Amino acid sequence: MTDLDDVRSLRATDASDMLGVVARLPLDARAGYDAGLAVDPVPIIDGITAVTYAGMGGSAVAGDILRSLFRDRLGVPVEVNRGPQLPAYCGPSTLLIASSYSGNTAETLAAFEEATARGCRVMALTSGGQLGHRASQLGVPVVGVPGGYMPRAALGHLAFGLLGALEAAGLLPRLAADVDEAVDEMARLITELAPEVPTTANPAKTIAATLGERTAVIWGAEGFAAVAAQRWRTQWNENAKLPAFAAAMPELDHNEVVGWSRGTGKHFGVVALRHDGEHEEIAARFAASLEIPAEAGAEIVEVQASGRAPLAQLCSLIVLGDLSATYTGLARGVDPSPIEAIDRLKAAIGGPA
Ligand code: F6R
């Protein structure tokens, strides 16, 4: 176990500097947005009837962000496709965005090739690898992201690169003010939640200390908070090396709540990710819904998004989750960065990691 207020031990356990990488998120977001705006050639969106975003794991999150934040403003549906096969509708009037940080993920490469064969408008988001190679062979738009990151930690480049490129294409409105606010909000939180800030004044360390070895169950309202909840889950898996689960309100009121029967909660912590843009009917359900796992013995933690626009609020939840998960891993004495199980599976399936 590592004492979260012993900064020297934290740094020693964090051998690959996940804390430092998370702290770069605001700068990465800014650089990603600029790279996206400069995409060349610009994706052609005239006449498209759907956007399909193909990616896995850390590279898929940018697609969820796009889907959840712009659903109320886009005239076309956005689907995130996490697998090698594309839906039947994908064809010449689909914009297919293939996103693989490494450029070597089998499922994403298969979706990219399938999209190309079907005549989709294709665009890639990658640091290189086979996807980068194929995209430049075909002359399709590529938003390049820098190498050297764990894919999940490259979210600033991937998500903001995607937003910039779709703004350049004319699919999204001008986002400069929203991006500025999100970058500032993330930078403010990075300072507030820094390793030097003691647990008593540091909400990310407090969450790590409160949950400890309890299994995290993350709740967020359908929309961008549900996307944040999934990000918390996967960061808990990969940075803290623990099982974790996520669910969306109000759907969980129709199933999960029944599972929190007497005595089942004692090894769990339920974290509710709240924001002030929740639909009023969903907001009104939270208190009564949280009472159910509380009565079952679960620890309950409620956190509130900060910032004004939805992009900043989502980013605030992501920064808090990334750092809480990283501190949870460090408190357990594990290096948050390596992902041996994923590497082993990729090697077993074949192809470079
Ligand atoms: C690793 C991670 C993984 C990868 C996934 C796909 O940090 O988060 O979920 O993102 O295995 O690999 P890429 O992103 O290279 O296509």
Question: How far apart are the termini?
Answer: 30 Å
- From the helix content, strand content and strand pairing, which structural class follows? alpha/beta
Q: Regarding CATH, which class of the largest domain?
A: Alpha Beta
CATH architecture of the largest domain: 3-Layer(aba) Sandwich
Q: What percent of residues are in strands?
A: 5-15%
Number of domains: 2
CATH superfamily of the largest domain: Glucose-6-phosphate isomerase like protein, domain 1
CATH topology of the largest domain: Rossmann fold
Write the layout of secondary structure elements.
Layout lengths: L6 H7 L4 H6 L1 H13 L12 E6 L5 H10 L7 E4 L12 E7 L5 H13 L2 E6 L2 H10 L3 E3 L10 H15 L6 H17 L10 H9 L3 E7 L2 H17 L3 E6 L6 H4 L8 E7 L5 H16 L3 E6 L5 H22 L8 H10 L4
Bound molecules: fructose -6-phosphate.
Fructose -6-phosphate (F6R) binds next to loops.
